[in-house]
Amino acid sequence: MIDFHCHIDLFPNPYEVARGCRERQAHVLSVTTTPSAWKGTSELGGGTVLTALGLHPQIAHERKSELHLFDRILPNSAYVGEVGLDGASEFKRYWNDQVDVFQHILEACEQFGGRIMSIHSRRASTPVLDVLEAHPGAGLPILHWFSGTPRELHRAVELGCWFSVGPAMLASKRGRDLAKRMPQARVLTESDGPFARIGGKPILPWEVGAAVRGLAECWESDSTSVDRILNENLANLLAQSSNINRST
Ligand code: MN
Fold it and tell me: Using one digit for the tens of pLDDT, what is the confidence trace for 108-133?
C-alpha cells in the first residue's frame, strides 16, 4: 500500500493516522505545507512513514519568510514537498511570490545534490515544467494530482517526471485519460488526504486501494498486477533516493 502524498499533520487526529499507517505497513510520504511544520510532522513519521519538507504555493506569500528555515532543514530531509505553483485565480495575485519561493527551493535542492520532490501544479503545469527544466539538478520530481493537457503530460515525461495519482483524480474522465497515458513505471498512488475526499469524507492514507482499482481499469489490468507494478516503482524510487542522499 502506497500513499506518496498526504498531509498526516492536517488530520484532526494525526497520531492515530500515523499509527494506522505503520500498523498497515503503508508506505507513506507525509508532506508538509510550511517549514515550521516539519519538525512536529517528522516526529509523527518513522518506519514506513517518510516526511517531506515543504512550502505550499497557496501560502507562499505568507510564509516566504520561512525559506531560511527551509534551507536549514534541507540537509536533513531527503524528501521535499509540497512545493510548486498554483495558477488558480485566487492565488494568481501572489504569482511572483510563488515563483520566487519555488525557484529558491529548487536552487537549494540543486545545491544539496537533489531531492525527491512532491510537486503541486494546479493550473500551472507549463510554468512548473519551465522551472523544473531550468533546474535539472534539483532531483526527481513527482507531479502530484497532475491536471495538465496531454501535451504537457508528454513534456513532463520527457523531463523525467513521475506522477502520484489518487482516487479524487481518477474520479474524473480527464484524470483517467491522463492516467492512461502515463508511463506505468513512473506512477505511484496518493490520497492527498485530508484535502481530497471520497463521499464527502477525507481520504485516509490506507484508502488508496480505490486508486489501485482505478488504475487497473485505466490500464486494462487487475489490482494484483497494478499493485506489483506500484511496489516495483516504489522500490526503484527509494533506491534512487539513497543515491541522491549519498551525493550530498
Ligand atoms: Mn496536497
Answer: 999 999 999 999 999 999 999 999 99
